[in-house]
# Entry
Amino acid sequence: MSSGLAIETQDLRKTYRVGKVEVPALRGADLQVRAGEFLAIVGPSGSGKSTLFHIIGGLTPPTSGRVRVAGLDLASLTDAGRTNLRKKTVGFVFQKFNLLPNLTAHDNIAVARYIAGANGPFSKDFAEILRLLGIDNRLDHKPNALSGGEQQRVAIARAIVNHPAILLADEPTGNLDTGNSKAVLEILRDLNERLGQTILMITHNPEAASFAHRTIRMRDGRIIDAG
Amino acid sequence: MTAKLVIENLKNKPMRSLLSFLLIGVPVTLILTLVGLSTGMLNDSKARAEGIGADLLVRASSTQAGISLSADSVPEKFVNYFRTKVPHVKLAMGVINHGIDFPLGITGIDQDDFNVMTGGFTYLSGQHGLRNSDDLLVDEPYARQKKLRLGQTVTLLNHDWHFVGIIGGGKLARLVVPLRTLQSVTPEATGKVTNIYLKLDDPKNSDQVEQFIRENTSLKVNTMEEITAAFTVNSLPGLAEFTYVVMGIGVVIGFAVVCLSMYMAVLQRTREIGILKAIGGSNSFILRIILVEAIVLGVGGTVFGILLSFGAWWLIHTLVPSSLQMVIVPLWWPIAGAITLVGAGLGALYPGLSAARHDPIEALAYE
# Structure
């Protein structure tokens, strides 16, 4: 991997098998993301955005091609290796927030720390981040007592609590109203600017993409515009 | 954090958790009730045998059980024979037992012999001793179970008895009538007794007396220590095996309940499992959560089962205090718990492994 690159893919391919039919989702994607970059990926449904997101996040292995994330060659990782990648190296923010409904906001964040092997109270720095996210006084509430915007901010806090090298956000504003969308995008940009957090964001929304440093476009499993 | 995840999961579905506790608790209750009943009834029989105060028991040679309920065993002439011919015998008392309503029996005694042998009954109310040929004494649990009132007529063995007094337990029998009358009520028992109890001048002479009886009669003789020692679970044919069967059923029910409960839980929590895997939860972490939850269900079910066994004890003690004697046996709580946990652990394995193998992307897409 070239020096300073957080993510690098070469001829990345992924083919899903649906019954006896093979469905190519990625057909040779080449991507380079610098450390500290805020990158948006846009494209129509079925263009391969989510598959790229899943492979970079270690949720599924590629069929072929190379993919390096924070210096790790994901193609050679076992299932356990990809699990370790998800513990500390990447953090996820999903469109549907994906908080554990039975746990409070605090415990939703704490469980990610616990899985990564950390225990005890949050650090002062992280407590400050919680304050910046505006959820420091909402931590004792369960997701069903939080607004969509608050839930997504808890999800962002959970994604960055282990100081991941890369934050992956899949349509983070897809379930939010305009005001909350803007707030979440500003938070992401703030995290990128303050902490140097590398962010890769999938979105359909051009306004959301405008918050990123660079926007790449995908179609039919390929990157057609590297921005 | 694992404990918190498990507890919150259980709290989130309280009805599922309660039903699981209940269903897991039922076999625990079955096991504890069975053990409590067998222990209680054996202890009761043992205490009543010990309360007689005899040194030796003589029965017909064919007698198998610790206490015979048959009414045609030993010719009564042997009572006098033991009194007069057998050295070291201080007292000999013949009694006749007759089953009335299993496991209950009625016992015919000679009141004078009984008083000398045992020191007599403790009388709780009513008449002291059998004075007339149709008198009936019963112990307090039987009187309570049958709601008997002093002075009323009680028909047993097609004979009308006059209920005259309530005796304390722990000596020979629950229902006592005159020996002669009981012999006449059951014609085949005329001139016979079921058991002959012997009191010796010195218990150290037991061996000598036993040897004498064996050499000079065809009767079976045992020390009372041997008789009371035989009141164990293993001495009752089939009881130990039946207990093992109930324990096996406990494991199977625990397995089935936990397997079904956790399988449903895993299905309902597919998305949550996907979330945990997305944030780095390993397969073993997911499996651990499921297993810990199953163990909590098993422990909760065991506690529930123990509480239910107290309910069973109360019901038995209230409704059939004379027919059945149940005791609480805390020694068996960990055994019943271990049986349940084995079932619960086995039952959680399949859903746990299934959850651990969930593909995170598919799990996250689960609605």
